[in-house]
User: Which sequence fits this backbone?
């Protein structure tokens, strides 16, 4: 069999539904004995059976909308199984709806776009509300919040279902009111009724019926002329009451604006910002441009405004220095006031910013004199001397009168050319030259040196000997000088004994025009060489004979026999003489003083002494190597001067006992005597 129960949703737990044993017509006591069990079609056990009484109660509250969703009827099926004997009963629970849900819309807000050009009577479908309840508890009617432009009408579909429509009852103007907010209310038929609301946002779609309008018909701006690229000049703004593309405004320069200005400035098409683009290379202080604002409608509408930009000058240009004329080099004898160069100084800035002052350092022999407008002359203000300063780096400083001022410098190199204004100058006032006599021909004696600070030919020096005589002879016969380097050479051999010193002048002359010269005195001192042997002045031998001195026969010891007198033409040590006995017939009888040359007896004369004696005296100097001379003196021992002097060639001395002839004779005699003795001995032996 089958038992059907009805139960309202949301019934509380434990509430009685019925008695299953009674409704099935069985004894409740047998339920437990027959091991009854209830099999549910759902996962949850919504009902419970009391095994002792058979009472059926709610085990868990039921939500019909959750359990059955949108089904028109909501049923729960159970099977009751009994054993001994096995029996199966179907139990059906019909869940009844209660008004526990309010009508709701699927979206929290609905948007409707209505073009502003639509005429009254236009209709727009509104959304349906959903109510999980059924029957009269579901949605029954709709209402709309009051609005002068819209009303609500209900329409019926072919299947009989109803739906709401929004009807335009008055023309719209988006520029006056772009959005209309309405409240759509859905009500169910429950008791008490429940309702649900949803906002309806009506957006009026624009029609391009308005042109952009600028805030000002004329915009004024002021910028500095050195403003960098990207500097904001001004921001223009035009409003268009339309919306969307019809209200989107794009800015641009009008075609009547010059191409130069359009390149100089940029305008942002969306923000209207006018910025500097590049360098503001204009000479006009006020620039005029037309700006156009155009919307993006199908038939774009536009308007224009004037932009006046005042360019404020800044001191952004430094003075420009141009050298238009520069004669170079400048002769060092240029008189003060000589024009060196012409300068052109320009500044592109106007007004005070373009006025320029120009100067050069004070410590230079130059000055700047203004000439024509923006021109200066660089002239000499003092004497120039190339030998002190051969050139000048002149720094020309030009400063404008801007604030802050800008300074430009340019360096001008002025070279000073040489003038032959300096004579040669010798390194000393006089030169002393020492040379030994007997020098070879062409011997180098000395090199004089002169300097000339001038340049080139003006400083190239040539050397010559000034005409003079030495000991009655021309200077050229003694000396020569190198024209190029001042080297002095001997052209003859000097003799100290004839010429001990002399002086002459060397002239140094440059090759300038006119040539300048200077002279210096050269003192030549000839030094002695030992080239002269001592000359015997006394005693003097005549015709090769021996000088004879007479000494008394009985002369005492230290008797002055004679004094040898000699002279040496050399000088100093070469003329220091010493006297020596080279030979004496009786070395014990005479002695010679080495420094004075006095020949004296060493003892008293004896009657046994030979009457004639001969001595040889050597006179030697101290040169290196030393030179010497000899003199032979014959000494005659006599008390009176004889009428005729004896010959001293044999020297008056006794002949030597053993000379070569005597030795030969003695040897021969000895040999003959030996032979004779030997012969006598032989005869004696023979006889015996």
Assistant:
């Amino acid at each position: 069999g089958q038992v059907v129960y009805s139960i309202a949703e949301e019934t509380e737990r434990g509430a009685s539904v019925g008695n299953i044993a009674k409704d099935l017509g069985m004894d409740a006591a047998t339920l437990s004995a027959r091991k009854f069990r209830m099999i549910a079609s759902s996962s949850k056990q919504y009902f419970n059976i009391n095994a002792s009484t058979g009472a059926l109660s709610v085990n868990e509250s039921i939500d019909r909308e959750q359990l059955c969703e949108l089904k028109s009827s909501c049923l729960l099926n159970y099977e009751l199984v009994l054993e001994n004997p096995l029996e199966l009963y179907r139990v059906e629970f019909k869940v009844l709806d209660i008004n526990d849900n309010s009508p709701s819309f699927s979206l929290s807000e609905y948007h409707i776009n209505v073009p502003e050009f639509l005429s009254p009577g236009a209709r727009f479908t509104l959304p349906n509300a959903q109510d999980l309840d059924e029957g009269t508890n579901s949605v029954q009617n709709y209402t709309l919040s009051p609005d002068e432009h819209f009303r609500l009408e209900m329409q019926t579909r072919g299947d009989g279902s109803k739906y709401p429509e929004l009807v335009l009852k008055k023309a719209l103007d988006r520029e006056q009111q772009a959005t209309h907010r309405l409240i759509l209310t859905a009500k169910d038929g429950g008791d008490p009724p429940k309702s649900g609301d949803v906002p309806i946002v009506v957006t009026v779609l624009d029609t391009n019926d308005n042109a952009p309008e600028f805030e000002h018909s004329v915009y004024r701006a002021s910028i500095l002329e050195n403003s960098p690229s990207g500097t904001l000049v001004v921001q223009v703004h035009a409003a268009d009451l339309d919306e969307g593309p019809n209200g989107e405004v794009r800015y641009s320069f009008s075609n009547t604006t010059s191409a130069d200005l359009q390149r100089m400035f940029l305008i942002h098409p969306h923000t209207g910002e006018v910025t500097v683009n590049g360098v503001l290379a204009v000479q006009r202080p006020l620039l005029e441009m037309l700006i156009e604002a155009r919307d993006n409608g199908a038939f774009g509408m536009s308007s224009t405004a004037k932009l006046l930009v005042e360019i404020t000058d800044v001191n952004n240009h430094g003075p420009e220095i141009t050298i238009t004329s520069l004669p170079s080099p400048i002769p060092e004898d240029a008189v003060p006031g000589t024009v060196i160069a012409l300068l052109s100084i320009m500044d592109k800035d106007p007004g005070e910013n373009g006025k320029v002052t120009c100067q050069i350092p004070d410590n230079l022999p130059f000055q700047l004199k203004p000439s024509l407008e923006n021109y200066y002359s660089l002239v000499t203000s003092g004497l120039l001397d190339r030998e002190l300063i051969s050139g000048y780096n002149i720094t020309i400083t030009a400063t404008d009168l801007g604030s802050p001022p800008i300074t430009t410098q340019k360096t001008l190199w002025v070279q000073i050319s040489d003038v032959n204004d300096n004579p040669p100058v010798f390194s000393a006032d006089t030169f002393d030259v020492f040379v030994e006599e007997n020098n070879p021909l062409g011997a180098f004696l000395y090199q004089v040196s002169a300097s000339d600070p001038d340049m080139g030919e003006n400083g190239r020096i040539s050397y010559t000997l000034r005409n003079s005589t030495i000991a009655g002879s021309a200077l050229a016969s003694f000396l020569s000088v190198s024209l190029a380097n001042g080297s002095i050479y001997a052209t003859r051999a000097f003799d100290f004994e004839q010429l001990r010193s002399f002086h002459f002048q060397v002239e140094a002359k440059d090759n300038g025009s006119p040539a300048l010269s200077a002279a210096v005195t050269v003192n030549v001192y000839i030094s002695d060489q030992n080239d002269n042997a001592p000359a015997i002045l006394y005693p003097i031998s005549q015709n090769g004979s021996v000088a004879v001195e007479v000494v008394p026969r009985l002369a005492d010891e230290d008797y002055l026999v004679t004094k040898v007198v000699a002279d040496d033409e050399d000088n100093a040590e070469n003329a220091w003489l010493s006297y020596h006995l080279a030979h004496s017939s009786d070395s014990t009888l005479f002695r010679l003083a080495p420094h004075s040359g006095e020949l004296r007896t060493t003892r008293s004369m004896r009657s046994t002494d030979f009457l004639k004696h001969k001595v040889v005296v050597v006179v030697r100097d101290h040169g290196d190597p030393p030179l010497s001379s000899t003199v032979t003196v014959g000494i005659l021992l006599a008390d009176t001067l004889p009428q005729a002097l004896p010959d001293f060639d044999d020297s008056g001395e006794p002949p030597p006992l053993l000379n070569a002839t005597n030795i030969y004779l003695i040897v021969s005699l000895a040999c003959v005597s030996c032979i004779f003795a030997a012969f006598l001995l032989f005869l004696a032996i023979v006889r015996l």
About this structure: The chain has six domains: 6-96, 110-205, 217-312, 320-417, 425-527, 535-637. The first strand starts at residue 2 and ends at 8. The chain has a mean pLDDT of 86.
